[in-house]
From TrEMBL:
Listed EC numbers: 2.1.1.190
Listed Gene3D superfamilies: 2.40.50.1070, Nucleic acid-binding proteins (2.40.50.140), Vaccinia Virus protein VP39 (3.40.50.150)
Active site residues per record: 413
Record-annotated TRAM domain positions: 6-64
Protein name: 23S rRNA (Uracil(1939)-C(5))-methyltransferase RlmD
Family note: Belongs to the class I-like SAM-binding methyltransferase superfamily. RNA M5U methyltransferase family.
CDD domains: AdoMet_MTases
Annotated residues for binding of S-adenosyl-L-methionine: 288, 317, 338, 386
Secretion signal, residue range per the UniProt entry: none
GO process terms (BP): rRNA base methylation
Keyword flag NAD: no
């Protein structure tokens, strides 16, 4: 007979925090039963109210820190506890990097069963603030007033924010100006419940190295009231803006962008660079939000690829071709594959933009294209993979091991699925030599990494 959980919903308990969850929660134990507690840190003793009880774990609300972590600090943002954007502002940045390091080590040991892999210290930022080049701001009305900011943690209630410490000051000031214009011109705000109103979100994208700025109004319909007044005032107040666009999304959905973009003024794209490579960025383009750390990440991938100019490289899940193009100057030929049609078109255009001719991009699922290439006898010296959070499909991994590249460079945004896939590769002829974590999102629980696998002879 299975034992009942030792806690009940609403119960107040005290427990020690022994671990760090992937979503930034502290992991405690009560009579051996796991409890996940937001805001708690490893090593702390806390008082908790149990909010949810499942068969194998519970969740709790932090009521009081009884014994604090020595590196616990006061969050700089007044919205830290209500906004879902950051999870780790309450610990020093040096200690945050150690927690992320531990997260990578734990996943590789628990899921991948690795005990002797070299895991380098996380590469962090010199200044872990104001790093985002993209921000998506939901608009709403609250008691008759326009509010704009971010969703409250676990809800679709908009938190009205004056500033955000991980986006830059220019984006903050532009958001304030747009909010004032919306109030002044009485532009109707979209209501999720009634599906009425016009303005849903404002998307801001910035070329950090080119100093170009794009403003996108996401609307529930084609017409924006006082459109020309909005454009005129934004141009007057922020001459740095080079593109003003409208994205039309009339669907009842949580997906922010619709399919149709309409250029209101300026250029259809902005540009930015990673190293020497220039990229054209549209409202829909996938482009890393932290350009400083993206260069760190790609340099690590290039180092692990160890290219001499004679290699054939396959870049799976290539997106807009950013890694493909970054490696092309050191490779004989690069083949990229991607499932999103718009991303493949962006990749091809970016290759033309940079006058890079030794790259080829193909549209389709990686788990279908690579087996096809393998059956056709394609050879690759280096395979680069940068999959979504769910990791690689088994069919893809199977084809990868049959092609037998000398090196596999795995870029991951999820240590858990990386560990799972690393275990598969290690059981099919590859040795995980080392892992380099990179902090792409300071103040959050997310950590990315680059792993190097070599073919065992």
């Amino acid at each position: 007979m299975k034992q009942k959980p030792p806690v009940q919903k609403g119960q107040i308990i005290e427990c020690m925090i022994h671990g760090f969850g992937h979503s930034g929660t502290g992991v405690g134990r009560y009579d051996g039963f796991a409890i996940f507690i937001g805001g708690a840190l490893p090593g702390e003793k806390v008082k908790v109210r149990v909010t949810k009880v499942k068969k194998t774990f519970a969740e709790g609300e932090l009521l009081q820190v009884l014994e604090a972590h020595p590196e616990r600090i006061d969050p700089v943002c007044p919205h830290f506890e209500s906004c879902g954007g950051c999870q780790l502002q309450h610990i020093s940045y040096g200690e945050e990097l150690k927690l992320k390091q531990q997260q990578v080590e734990d996943q590789l040991q628990r899921i991948g069963l690795f005990s002797d892999v070299i895991i380098h210290p996380v590469k962090g930022m010199e200044n872990p603030w104001s790093y985002r080049n993209k921000v998506q701001i939901p608009f709403a009305t609250l008691e008759g007033k326009v509010v704009a900011g971010f969703y409250q943690l676990g809800t679709h209630q908009v938190v009205d924010m004056e500033t955000c410490f991980i986006q830059n000051e220019l984006q903050t000031e532009l958001t304030k100006k747009i909010k004032q214009l919306v109030e002044k011109l009485q532009i109707p705000i979209y209501n999720e419940t009634t599906h009425k109103g016009i303005l849903r979100h404002v998307l801001l994208r910035q070329g950090v190295h080119t100093n170009e700025l794009m403003v996108v109004f996401v609307t529930n319909g084609e017409k924006i009231a006082s459109e020309q007044d909005v454009i005129k005032e934004i141009r007057r107040s922020f001459p740095i803006v080079t593109s003003i666009q409208q994205n039309i999304n009339t669907n009842r959905t949580n997906v922010i962008l619709g399919r149709e973009n309409r250029l209101l003024w300026g250029m259809p794209v902005i540009y930015d660079t990673i190293g020497e490579i220039q990229f054209a960025i549209s409202p829909h383009s996938f482009f890393q939000v932290n350009p400083t750390q993206t260069k760190v990440l790609y340099e690590q991938a290039k180092k692990y690829a160890n290219l001499t100019g004679e290699e054939i490289v396959i870049d799976a899940y290539c997106g807009i071709g950013s890694i493909s193009l970054y490696l092309a100057d050191r490779a004989k030929k690069v083949y990229g594959m991607e499932i999103v049609p718009a991303a493949i078109e962006d990749a091809k255009q970016n290759a033309v933009l940079n006058k890079i001719k030794n790259v080829t991009f193909e549209l389709g699922k990686a788990e279908e294209i690579l087996p096809k290439w393998q059956e056709e006898g394609m050879h690759a010296d280096v395979l680069v993979v940068d999959p979504p959070r769910k990791g690689c499909d088994v069919a893809f991994l199977d084809a990868a091991t049959k092609i037998q590249p000398k090196r596999i460079v795995y870029v991951s945004c999820n240590p858990a699925t990386f560990a799972r896939d690393a275990k598969y590769l290690s059981e099919h002829g590859y040795h995980l030599q080392e892992v380099q974590p990179v902090d792409m999102f300071p103040q959050t629980s997310h950590v990315e990494l680059v792993g190097l696998f070599t073919l065992q002879v």
